[in-house]
């Protein structure tokens, strides 16, 4: 068996097109969705993600507000910026790029964002709403994973799903979303005993541990659909001195001989994350104007 490769890059392009159509529709009502992105410090990967977010926001016809603060910015200064953005009617979505420097309490900053503008879906109110089956802003990476799974498999009801990783930004919301789709969900992590046996139950496997090559082929049930959330940068001397490349959490070359379908890294989940951020911003904008959330941008 050679797995189908799920093309996240192409799918993200489709979502961005839907976003642009909704933005054009809103412009006819003189409404321009606006996204504010806040970057603290100079982490090189975050720099790239923020640049891509701003570019894609503008390409979709939305307003992009970029705020860059120094590495030694005080927590209170960041919270004050968030409060100003909460009060700004041109801003419908606020995203604080993670990770933040160590001296800043991430939860405190995230929970300072107005939940209605929390397009990352990380605020405790949105996490609670998702966990209790109420409408919520859904975190972008799990939302992108779910869209790809639905596109590939259709109705997910009754499927055995295994999520590897329990982070607040991917593992936990992913598990909640799959539960909402009526999957039987198992979450495993670094302390899970007999993890190979647990993962082997999965007809759907979502790997989000942040460790390169963590998932070997003999953990994967034949015919499973595998979503690799990992983005690990490794040295690539074959590309030249000092060069690097990205790999996922799954041993792609071996797993593709066992799985029915798999997302690649790069070109899988990553591009979907930014496309879903744009989708969430349009949703937040619609809701703030008393308009219904666009059906083609939400789950
Ligand atoms: N506030 C947030 N911070 C972070 C999030 C998030 O959703 N909200 N997620 C990650 C980083 N991230 C977005 O911020 C992100 C990561 C990767 C990609 C992506 O497109 N990856 C490409 C490869 C890009 C490259 O060459 O480096 C791919 O996988 O094909 C987009 C967004 C942590 N922080
Ligand atoms: Mg910190």
UniProtKB/TrEMBL annotation:
UniProt-listed Pfam families: THF_DHG_CYH, THF_DHG_CYH_C
Stored SUPFAM superfamilies: Aminoacid dehydrogenase-like, N-terminal domain, NAD(P)-binding Rossmann-fold domains
Thylakoid found in the keyword field: no
Assigned GO CC terms: cytosol
Recorded catalytic activity of this chain's protein: (6R)-5,10-methenyltetrahydrofolate + H2O = (6R)-10-formyltetrahydrofolate + H(+); (6R)-5,10-methylene-5,6,7,8-tetrahydrofolate + NADP(+) = (6R)-5,10-methenyltetrahydrofolate + NADPH
Protein residues bound to NADP(+): 165-167, 231
Keywords associated with the record: Amino-acid biosynthesis, Histidine biosynthesis, Hydrolase, Methionine biosynthesis, Multifunctional enzyme, NADP, One-carbon metabolism, Oxidoreductase, Purine biosynthesis
Domain annotation Tetrahydrofolate dehydrogenase/cyclohydrolase catalytic: ranges: 6-120
Gene Ontology MF terms: methenyltetrahydrofolate cyclohydrolase activity; methylenetetrahydrofolate dehydrogenase (NADP+) activity
Transmembrane annotation, as ranges: none
EC id: 1.5.1.5, 3.5.4.9
Pathway(s) where this gene product acts: One-carbon metabolism; tetrahydrofolate interconversion
Gene Ontology annotations of biological process type: L-histidine biosynthetic process; methionine biosynthetic process; purine nucleotide biosynthetic process; tetrahydrofolate interconversion
Keyword S-adenosyl-L-methionine in record: no
Function comment: Catalyzes the oxidation of 5,10-methylenetetrahydrofolate to 5,10-methenyltetrahydrofolate and then the hydrolysis of 5,10-methenyltetrahydrofolate to 10-formyltetrahydrofolate.
Family, per entry: Belongs to the tetrahydrofolate dehydrogenase/cyclohydrolase family.
The protein's assembly and partners: Homodimer.
Protein name from the UniProt record: Bifunctional protein FolD
Gene giving rise to this polypeptide: folD
């Amino acid at each position: 068996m050679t797995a189908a490769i799920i093309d996240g890059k192409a799918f993200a392009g489709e979502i961005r097109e839907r976003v642009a159509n909704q933005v054009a529709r809103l412009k006819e009502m003189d409404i321009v969705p606006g996204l504010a992105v806040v970057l603290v410090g100079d982490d090189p990967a975050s720099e790239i993600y923020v640049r891509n977010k701003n570019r894609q926001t503008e390409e979709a016809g939305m307003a992009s507000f970029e705020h860059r603060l120094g590495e030694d910015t005080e927590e209170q200064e960041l919270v004050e910026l968030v409060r100003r953005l909460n009060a700004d009617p041109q801003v419908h979505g606020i995203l604080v790029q993670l990770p933040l420097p160590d001296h800043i309490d991430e939860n405190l900053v995230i929970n300072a964002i107005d939940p209605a503008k929390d397009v990352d879906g990380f605020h405790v109110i949105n996490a609670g709403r998702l966990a209790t089956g109420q409408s919520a802003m859904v975190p972008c990476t799990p939302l992108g994973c779910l869209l790809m799974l639905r596109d590939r498999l259709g109705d997910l009801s009754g499927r055995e799903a295994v999520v590897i990783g329990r982070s607040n930004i991917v593992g936990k919301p992913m598990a909640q979303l799959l539960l909402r789709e009526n999957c039987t969900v198992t979450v495993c992590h670094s302390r899970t005993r007999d993890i190979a046996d647990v993962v082997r139950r999965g007809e759907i496997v979502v790997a989000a541990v942040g460790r390169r090559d963590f998932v070997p082929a003999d953990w994967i049930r034949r015919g499973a659909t595998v979503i690799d959330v990992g983005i690990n940068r490794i040295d690539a001397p074959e590309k030249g001195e000092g060069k690097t490349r990205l790999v996922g959490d799954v041993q792609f070359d071996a797993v593709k001989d066992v799985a029915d379908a798999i997302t690649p890294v790069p070109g899988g989940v990553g591009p979907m994350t930014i496309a879903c951020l744009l989708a969430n911003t349009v949703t937040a904008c619609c809701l703030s104007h008393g308009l219904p959330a666009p059906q083609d941008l939400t789950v």
